[in-house]
Amino acid sequence: MAKETMKAVGLYKYLNVEHSESLIDVEIEKPVPIGKDLLVKVKAISVNPVDTKVRAPKDKTEVPPRILGWDVAGVVEQTGPECTLFQPGDEVYYAGSITRPGGNSEFHLVDERIVGTKPSTLDFAQSAALPLTAITAWEALFDRLGVSHNKDVNAGKIILIIGAAGGVGSIAIQLAKYAGLTVIGTASRPTSIDWVKTMGADHVINHHNSFVPQLNALGLQHTDYILCLNSTEQHWQNMAEAIAPQGKICSIVETDHPLNLTLLKNKSVTFVWELMFTRSMFQTADMIEQHKLLNEVAQLIDSGTIRTTLAVRMEPIDATNLRKAHAMIEAGDTVGKVVLEHF
């Protein structure tokens, strides 16, 4: 009996995005859910910097093809025998796991503990813009930096978000405002400055210039929290100068060279990393927290408290459009999220 197949976009070789074989249309076997897995019919996907980093040229080949994509909105097609949170027909959104095949396929397997119920007020494309960035921003703010969910506790506290116009920054601004923080975002181009203001930032400064003089010009000496979403090394000195004594810095961007942690010692500053794949990668005991936070984000969306960060919508989902989307991300000047829908 022939096995059922499905469309997908994948790679056999790791190539520059301009190469026609960097991402190609393929037919692969349709998977079957076991354990806690859901089989999701994919309706929309979005592209993140992690996609381009994974696809970047390297001396390695893949057989079968590697499927990328870590932002999905779709409909549950089938559930594994151990599933208790969802049933067929449920509309869901999620980011998935970096250690498993990605979601750039007609159907996709994902552990239900990292899946949320799709916001009811958004379509699939608007929803697909959110999971990876929302999980990253939520975990960075509330789990890593320890920001309180209580607005009264946060009254008068300030967060600086470096690279605020991107996907994570766009949602982090909104969540930080929801938590009652004063938000300073960094941006340097007119379009990105406007976007950061539209997302709700109280002030915008330029990350190409020294931070402290710009903070002083706003009547501020320092900032209680810093969330770095762009080149940790480039901004390290500026962050060390701008952070308040006993403040906290979180970054999501890996470094090529060691950082001088001694710069933080006199102020007793906390530095912490955020990677939203940690829970799924290591199957941590609290994996289900991503299910919970995605549901909370959906409620905030449906109540009008925060909004989708979709900026560019493309169709269909195919290799040509995914190569275009990767090129846009690699150019480094996108605001918000790039989303593809419909196979």
Automatic annotation (TrEMBL):
Pfam families recorded: ADH_N, ADH_zinc_N
InterPro entries: ADH-like_C (IPR013149), ADH-like_N (IPR013154), ADH_Zn_typ-1 (IPR014182), ER (IPR020843), GroES-like_sf (IPR011032), NAD(P)-bd_dom_sf (IPR036291), Quin_OxRdtase/zeta-crystal_CS (IPR002364), Zinc-ADH_QOR/CCCR (IPR051603)
CDD domains: AL_MDR (cd08252)
Main location class: cytoplasm
SUPFAM superfamilies: GroES-like, NAD(P)-binding Rossmann-fold domains
Domain of life: Bacteria
Cellular location(s): Cytoplasm
Residues of the Enoyl reductase (ER) domain: 22-340
UniProt KW keywords: Acetylation, Cytoplasm, Metal-binding, NADP, Oxidoreductase, RNA-binding, Zinc
PANTHER family: QUINONE OXIDOREDUCTASE
NCBIfam families documented for this protein: adh_fam_1 (TIGR02817)
Quaternary context: Homotetramer.
Protein family (similarity comment): Belongs to the zinc-containing alcohol dehydrogenase family. Quinone oxidoreductase subfamily.
Protein name, UniProt field: Zinc-type alcohol dehydrogenase-like protein
Organism: Paenibacillus phytorum
